[in-house]
Structure of CUB domain-containing protein:
Amino acid sequence: MKRRPSELKRSLFSITIFCSVVFCRVDSTAGWNSSDFQVNSTAAWNSSNFQVCGKILTGNGGIFQSPNFPYNYPDNTRCVWTITVDPGFQVRVDLSEISLEEADDCSFDYILIRDGNNQSAEILAEKCGFSILCPITSTGNEMFIEFKSDGSVTRSGFQATWSAVNSTTALNDTNCQVCRKILTGNGGIFQSPNFPYNYPDNTRCVWTITVDPGFQVRVDFSEFSLEGTDGCSFDYVFIRDGNNQSAEILAEKCGFSILCPITSTGNEMFIEFKSDGSVTRSGFQATWSAVNSTTALNNTNCQDNSTATSTTPSSVDNSTATSTSSSVGCSQTLSGNEGTLQSPNYPSDYPNNARCVWTIETDPGTRVSLNFSAFSVEDGRSCRYDSLVVRDGNSSSSPLLRKLCGQERTVAITASGNVLFLEFRSDRSMTKNGFLAQWSVDNSTATSTPFSVGCSRTLSGNEGSLQSPNYPSDYPNNARCVWTIETDPGTRVSLNFSAFSLEDGRNCRHDSLVVRDGNSSSSPLLRKLCGQERTVAITASGNNLFLEFRSDRSVTKNGFLAQWSVGSSKKNFPEGCQKVISECLSRFWAASFQPVDYGKLARTFFICVRNRCPETAGIPAFDNA
């Protein structure tokens, strides 16, 4: 609806929360008009201004979260939640985990929690990066939470529960302990809180270890005693092959264990320890060190949960293999346009605690392809026990093509070039007879066409379609597909979905389609999709989109069908308008964070826009929710 300034001024007196976006807009029919303002019932989004969100929350409890959670929050976002509970109670907020852009002083993206109802109240907590937090409790019956993101780099954000609690419950929160350390260098020690005495209840600890590039992280647990359960659902230690909680799990441990050394594939490792509200043990102590690949491969003499030292010879052959068409050993560099490789001891069972690496290289200009004539490896969720990883390149950091386990009879795996990297790992228990594989040169090449039914292609043209493998039938397990779309220079490519059905999961951890604003896996993230998503059009800032589809080893759906086309070019704002609007927005925010006088707040915003931005301005309606 459209309103004159006098009507707009009256309507703004009823606002109960802040606006969403202020932006400049060209009216192609009426031109620029200084006397009218456009009030939209649905907020339009413009990434160059702040998206404002938040709510006034009252009652006994509820949930609030960052925009788009569990997907990445947008750039340039400010959200404010004011929570009020009954007098005599306190506000408790449980932010069990947050994932924001990190900075030493939290100057980029952050969440501020204050002990009152406005931004001048005392700060209870200021957090950014990846944090594991204890519950946060106000001293009175009000709490003020502010979330802000800057113009670049976003993460999955946060979800929080809030509740009204009495003083007894609030005091119990002081028993919660959080510990987090970032460890760098060549080695050191970390341990559970209070070790060798019992760790406390309700404890969360995270250690992120980073060693020099070219080395790997090795962790040795000298003592380990946690509350035990079959699913490790009470107290546990997670060890991940990377620097965050979404990295691949190397080990999940609880109970009483004597553990073999655990080694990362790269130069980073993420360790998480958690205890619940009852039953504690003495915990653990561990040493960490930077090791080279030879040292990492020599960890195979260890047997978990045994006080005896294994006398089984190491299964690892550290010699460099000659270039042959057939390989029976472990850890070899293989060259030639065809050949065979197999797991250690095949067709007998492979040993425990094995790690083997093969690098296959065919002639330049060819594409190497891998087929399996036999495959039997211990199964497990996310292939956490024994696995064969196949990567598109010559190192452990190359893009993942497949991660295989179980009784997999996989289709051919083809690299984008002439090199494949394979890594086989087995854990301390249960072995199978492994695998037999053949590599050869794939003479087929993907051509750029306006329609793609396949997987991993470069697509050009101003319109076309693409779909998940086998669509409309179910896509396969352990798939990875990459599409790069390129339209004419000077255009903006836009993607629409006519059908979408993937396995769902928190943070799309199982199956997902990632859409990026550019032509590579490092381009800015636009969306990460899963579940029964029927998303609106996704539009790039230019003429390239990068799509990556991944499925895990279980549960498949019928996937997606998408169409790309050329969207309208981005409208240029009048010179100086962005600066004026930013100033207006800053003044509006300064007014809005004072004790609320809605009349004054409305007048401040109205006068600002009228006096400083005479061009037509789009002013979305206020959110009364």
DSSP finds five helices and 43 strands in the chain. Residues 577-592 form the longest helix (16 residues).
